[in-house]
Amino acid sequence: MASSVPSVAKGLFIGGRWTDPTGATKFTTINPATGETVGEFVSGTAEDVGAAIASARAAAAAWKDTPAPKRGEILLAAAAILRRRKEEIARTVTREMGKVIAEGRGDVQESIDFIEFMAGEGRRLYGETVPSELRAKFCLTIRQPKGVVACITPWNFPTSIPNWKIAAAIICGNTVVFKPASTTALSAARIVEVYEEAGLPPGVLNFVTGSGGVVGNALVSDPRVRAVSFTGGVETGREVYVRGAKGLKMVHLELGGKNPQIVLEDANLDLALDGLLFGAFGTAGQRCTATSRVILHERIYDEFLGRLLERVRALKVGDPLDESTDMGPVASRDQETKVLGYVKTGLEEGGRLAAGGSKLAGPRYDRGFFVAPTVFEVVHGSRLSKEEIFGPVLSVVKVPDFAEAIRVANDVDYGLSSSIYTRDISRALQAVDALEAGITYVNAPTIGAEVQLPFGGVKNTGNGGREAGSAAIEEFTEVKTVFIDYSGRLQKAQIDPR
User: Going by C-beta distance under 8 Å and a sequence separation of 6 or more, which residues neighbour residue 150?
Assistant: First the structure.
């Protein structure tokens, strides 16, 4: 799995220029399959963040004044550049994050799709008109940008999640300071390059790499930043929310999941099995929508589990750039340690380890962070059945009936995605109504969001907002109510005679 691609050095992007501050501390990103260095980056300081915010603020008035359809044209140009560079950037994603190359391409394609969708919003950005209770008076609402916004993103979708935020923010007329996960800084830098090439004016998008404790905290705390869009872990998200609330700024959180797939006794088992393998082990389980639990009706439990284990043991784990590989490494040593820690927890709790459960060894794996696809039979209520693992570990739970399947599915702190496999339309629709999740799939896995639909969840998965779809503009706009009185006299709503 040796790579001949040289590592890349990249600085900060502030005011339309790439800069590498003299004497700056640096960090590197690592290929999780080979251990090789992928890129070297600046560890930004609070002063760097301040400069980026100042740049964004200076560009805000002109960008707000740019007609939204013209902003959309720049987005379309960015999408075209991404389409041209798709393979190159997909390979960067795979080298830096570890997802198999087909998923790396999917990551970039989702970016393209969403940018194009948001470009169209430049000709919408709808308000509403409503009748007035008074004569000769016109009432309407319009959408206006919030101003400078901070976009803080994770490593598992290193191009698509940034673009979900950046494209939505800039089509609405905001200016952005973007802080990516340090693990995938090169993938994020490639996105900034795309917007730069597309002709985005200087200062509209700024890029500062570095730690959450320094760069993230400085961004969230600065009063010039009027909105924060954050995707990441629950504990960090809670800290971001509290810090942002002190400044009375809007904070949008997309956090964790513990997503269930229910398989009832009448399900198409072949279809349910295909969906489960993709949902549980795609991206090595490192998706907020990953299928972390499969809830099986007792009548099909033994048959389905047997077939599942046969398929899991046949999965090819290895070089993610190899087109035949089914699953690559986890993203970092920290991820590997966390996942193996949960394996230990599962054993201590008395779960039955049915497949995997170890770091893979041998010449193909020794330099990377490879964990075998893992399956545990567990009792609901165990830590493995209720906590987010964010790795290739699937918990299998047996239930006696549909009602218990729904209860078990809902009895966790999260509520992002959910899935049910059944041929019974009545029970499918009951599940759509009863499952406590922002997303429900029927006869499909818990992963596979489409950009034209809202994305988000309930409970500890977030704080109520949604990304993607037309709902994305709500995150980045203020609604202004406008009254136009052309009566030529003072009218008093609720006071004048009716």
Answer: 176, 177, 178, 179, 219, 220, 225, 227, 228, 229
Q: What is the mean pLDDT of the chain?
A: 96
- Which phi-psi region, left, alpha or beta, contains residue 447 (left: φ > 0; alpha: ψ -120 to 50)? beta
Domains defined along the chain, listed by start:
8-255+462-481 (3.40.605.10), 259-442 (3.40.309.10)
Check residue 1 and give its pLDDT: 52
Phi, psi of 48, deg, nearest 5: -65, -40
Note the residue count of the chain.
Answer: 498
Residue 3 has pLDDT above 60, yes or no: no
For 89, half-sphere exposure in the C-beta direction (CA atoms, 13 angstrom radius) is: 28
User: Looking at the annotation, which residues are catalytic?
Assistant: 254, 288
User: Which amino acid, residue 116?
Assistant: E
Q: Which amino acid is at 77?
A: A
Q: Kindly state the tokens that stand for 139.
A: 């009432």
Query: Residue 437 pLDDT more than 60?
Result: yes
Q: Please say whether the beta carbons of 184 and 29 come within 8 A.
A: yes
User: Which residues pair with residue 399 across a beta bridge?
Assistant: 297
Averaged over 476-495, what is the pLDDT?
94
Copy the structure tokens of residue 244: 């942002």
| Neighbouring residues of 22: CB distance < 8 A, sequence distance ≥ 6 | none
* Single-letter code of the amino acid located at 419: S
Q: What is the pLDDT of residue 367?
A: 94
What's the CA gap between 230 and 151, in Å, rounded? Answer: 6
Burial group, residue 366, by CB count within 10 angstroms (0-12, 13-18, 19+): exposed
